[in-house]
C-alpha cells in the first residue's frame, strides 16, 4: 500500500450517487472537490472569503470508482494583491490494491473578497 507523504486539503469517499452511466465517478463531482480543496488552501493562506475566477485545463488520466478514497492536495503557487493561485493534485486510492493513482491536477485562481463581494487585499505575513 502506498502511503501519502503529505496531508490532503480534503479527502472524499466516492459514493454510488456520484457515478455516471459508465459506472465511474462524474468528472464534475471531482471538479467540485478540486474547487473546494483550492478554497481551503486559499483560506489557510489568510484569505477570509474567496471566489473562483479561473480554472486551467483539466485532463483526467485515470478513472475513479465507487468506494475509492480520493485525496485532493492543494498548494499555493502564486499570491497577488487580491488573487491567489492554487495547484490541486488529485489521487485515488484503489480499493483492491491500496495503491494511489494520479487522477488529475489543476491550477485555480481565486479572488479574496469582502462581505459585499468586492476584491480585498490578501493579508501578508509580517
Written account of the structure:
The protein is mainly beta and 126 residues long. It has one helix and five strands, in the order βαββββ. It has one helix at 27-44, and strands at residues 10-13, 50-55, 69-79, 83-93, 100-112. Strands 1-3-4-5-2 form a five-stranded antiparallel β-sheet, with helices on one face. The longest helix has 18 residues, at 27-44. The mean pLDDT is 94.
> What portion of residues belong to β-strands?
35-45%
Radius of gyration from CA coordinates:
16 Å
What is the N-to-C succession of helices and strands? EHEEEE
Profile the largest sheet: 5 strands, antiparallel
Describe how the helices and strands are arranged:
Elements lengths: L9 E4 L13 H18 L5 E6 L13 E11 L3 E11 L6 E13 L14
Antiparallel strand pairs: 1-3, 2-5, 3-4, 4-5
Amino acid at each position: 500500500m502506498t502511503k501519502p507523504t503529505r496531508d490532503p486539503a480534503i479527502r472524499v469517499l466516492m459514493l454510488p450517487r456520484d457515478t455516471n452511466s459508465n459506472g465511474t465517478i462524474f468528472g464534475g463531482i471531482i471538479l467540485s472537490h478540486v474547487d473546494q480543496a483550492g478554497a481551503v488552501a486559499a483560506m489557510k493562506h489568510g484569505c477570509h472569503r474567496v471566489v473562483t475566477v479561473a480554472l486551467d485545463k483539466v485532463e483526467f488520466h485515470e478513472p475513479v470508482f465507487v468506494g475509492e478514497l480520493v485525496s485532493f492536495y492543494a498548494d499555493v503557487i502564486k499570491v497577488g494583491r487580491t488573487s491567489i493561485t492554487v495547484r490541486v493534485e488529485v489521487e485515488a486510492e484503489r480499493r483492491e490494491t491500496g495503491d494511489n493513482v494520479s487522477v488529475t491536477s489543476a491550477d485555480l485562481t481565486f479572488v479574496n473578497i469582502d462581505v459585499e463581494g468586492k476584491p480585498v487585499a490578501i493579508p501578508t505575513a509580517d
